[in-house]
């Protein structure tokens, strides 16, 4: 046993979380529903590793001694820089480029996995989180972008999010690029400043037009005292950018007409507006009008987007940490990134896709009461009343019989007596426990205690009549009928859960 001085302090690194069984199972069910939609659209699974060469992620080292901020990086034994992936898109681009000759094109794929950000953690902002992506590589037409928007809408509804509680918002980076060119931010030499502008616009929902104006100008000081350096634009340029992001109107046609006025005389901007018009027409023809909406305030914060960009936004209110009612906001997004695969090849490779933030979407479903935890039931626990080998063998056979019947079960393996064993079963979420002492063993019987019904009776029933009419919380059964009787209890509990859900 370690002395006090030798003990290591058990502590979780900042920005990381442990995941408990209920959350894991709920996430698996949610992702299974998402996967069904992806498969319905003809997408195929692929998996890439967590670690890539740093330059493959589009990140470059500012010097030889320190990896680029934003990613977790380290040097291999051959002194090449490796990084934990920042997202799932850049690794896909590397995979497609490396297997370009053998994969069908357009290449339609989906993948789920952990991504890592070496950034300052905060409330709801983690350094490790899961994304679930779908991408089409090799399709130059904006029909592929329109399909992504429609698939995002179908995912929302497959998860039980009703129409009116979500919207897929769409914009085009070509339109924004046209605006940026008009204020002198075109060309490679302005790439860094453009990125600052993009990230400023991306904060519109959070800070409003006034906050974005500060970020486009000298900078913004938040309530905590943290200062964010601005893009340094002059008042005229700030006005042009704000005019662009406020061009949204009641209908897609009105928004497109407004954008046409904003980009008058700019070829790239006009091309972007034309693409938005096509997406609007395709989505409306397929019955997605109102669910997919043209919105100039959507920019996405990453530099690699080259055309349409989109976000899935949830419109219902939630209460924040200050007790204020706020709109839940974005749970995923993406866009066209025609230059990302081309970094590895000497030819242009068009691509588009979107990413769902799994943890954030789970939080949304929990707020809506749509997070499915119905099957998060613990195992049946066989209590250990006697510890001689013959008795242990009998208990183990009970467990084996239950498992053979497809029922989760375990024999208590600790060293405690009956009361602590019952407490253990409660903490495990066991639906029932099996008890066999020497008296029951001699009679070839077992006691089966329904923990769910027992808890309900203790909490809800106050009169003897109701008690007598309720389902018994403990029964005596023949040992040979163990599986049948446990199944009856589990079925009754399942029926109660279904009835409770219907009553909500």
UniProtKB/TrEMBL annotation:
A Gene Ontology BP annotation from the UniProt entry: histidyl-tRNA aminoacylation
Record: residues binding L-histidine: 87-89, 117, 131, 135, 300, 304-305
Pfam families assigned to the protein according to its UniProt record, in alphabetical order: HGTP_anticodon (PF03129), tRNA-synt_His (PF13393)
Keyword tags: Aminoacyl-tRNA synthetase, ATP-binding, Cytoplasm, Ligase, Nucleotide-binding, Protein biosynthesis
Catalytic activity: tRNA(His) + L-histidine + ATP = L-histidyl-tRNA(His) + AMP + diphosphate + H(+)
Top EC class, one word: ligase
Subcellular location: Cytoplasm
EC number: 6.1.1.21
Molecular function per GO: ATP binding; histidine-tRNA ligase activity
InterPro entries the record matches: aa-tRNA-synth_II, aa-tRNA-synth_II/BPL/LPL, Anticodon-bd, Anticodon-bd_dom_sf, His-tRNA-ligase, HisRS-like_core, HisRS/HisZ, HisRS_anticodon
Any GO CC annotation of this UniProt entry: cytoplasm
Coiled coil: none
Primary localisation category: cytoplasm
Aminoacyl-transfer RNA synthetases class-II family profile domain: residues covered: 1-379
Family: Belongs to the class-II aminoacyl-tRNA synthetase family.
Subunit structure: Homodimer.
Stated name of the protein: Histidine--tRNA ligase
Species in which this protein is naturally found: Phyllobacterium endophyticum
């Amino acid at each position: 046993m370690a002395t006090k001085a030798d003990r290591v302090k058990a502590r979780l690194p900042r920005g990381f979380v442990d995941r408990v069984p209920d959350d894991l199972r709920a996430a698996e069910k949610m992702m299974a529903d998402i996967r069904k939609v992806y498969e319905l659209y003809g997408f195929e699974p692929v998996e890439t590793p967590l670690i890539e060469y740093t330059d493959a992620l589009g990140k470059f080292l500012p010097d030889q001694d320190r990896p680029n901020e934003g990613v977790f990086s380290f040097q291999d034994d051959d002194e090449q820089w490796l990084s934990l992936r920042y997202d799932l898109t850049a690794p896909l681009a590397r995979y497609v480029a490396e297997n370009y000759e053998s994969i069908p094109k357009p290449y339609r794929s989906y993948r789920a996995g952990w991504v890592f950000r070496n950034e300052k953690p905060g409330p709801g902002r983690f350094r490790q989180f899961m994304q679930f992506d779908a991408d089409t590589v090799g399709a130059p037409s904006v029909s592929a972008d329109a399909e992504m928007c429609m698939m995002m809408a179908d995912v929302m509804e497959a998860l039980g999010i009703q129409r009116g509680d979500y919207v897929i918002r769409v914009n085009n980076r070509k339109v924004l690029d046209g605006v940026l060119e008009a204020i002198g931010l075109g060309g490679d030499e302005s790439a860094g400043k453009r990125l600052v502008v993009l990230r400023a616009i991306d904060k519109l929902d959070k800070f409003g037009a006034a906050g974005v104006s500060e970020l486009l100008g000298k900078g913004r000081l938040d309530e905590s005292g943290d200062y964010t350096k601005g893009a340094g634009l002059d008042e005229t340029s700030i006005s042009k950018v704000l005019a662009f992001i406020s061009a949204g109107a009641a209908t897609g046609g009105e928004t497109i007409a407004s954008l046409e006025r904003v980009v008058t005389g700019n070829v790239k901007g006009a091309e972007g507006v034309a693409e938005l018009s096509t997406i609007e027409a395709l989505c409306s023809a397929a019955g997605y009008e109102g669910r997919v909406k043209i919105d100039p305030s959507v920019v996405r914060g990453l530099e690699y987007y080259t055309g349409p960009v989109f976000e899935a936004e949830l419109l219902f209110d939630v209460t924040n940490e200050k007790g204020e009612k706020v709109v839940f906001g974005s749970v995923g997004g993406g866009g066209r990134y025609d230059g990302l695969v081309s970094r590895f090849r000497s030819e242009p490779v068009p691509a588009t896709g979107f990413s769902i933030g799994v943890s954030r979407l789970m939080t949304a479903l929990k707020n809506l009461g749509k997070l499915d935890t119905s099957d998060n039931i613990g195992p049946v626990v066989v209590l250990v009343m006697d510890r001689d080998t013959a008795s242990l063998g009998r208990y183990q056979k009970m467990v084996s019989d239950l498992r053979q019947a497809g029922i989760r079960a375990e024999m208590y393996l600790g060293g405690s007596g009956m009361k602590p064993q019952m407490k253990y079963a409660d903490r495990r979420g066991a639906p029932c426990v099996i008890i066999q002492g020497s008296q029951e063993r001699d009679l070839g019987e077992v006691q089966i205690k329904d923990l769910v019904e027992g808890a309900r009776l203790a909490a809800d029933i106050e009169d003897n009549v109701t008690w007598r009419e309720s389902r018994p919380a403990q029964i005596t059964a023949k040992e040979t009928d163990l599986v049948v009787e446990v199944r009856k209890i589990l079925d009754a509990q399942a029926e109660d859960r279904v009835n409770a859900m219907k009553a909500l």
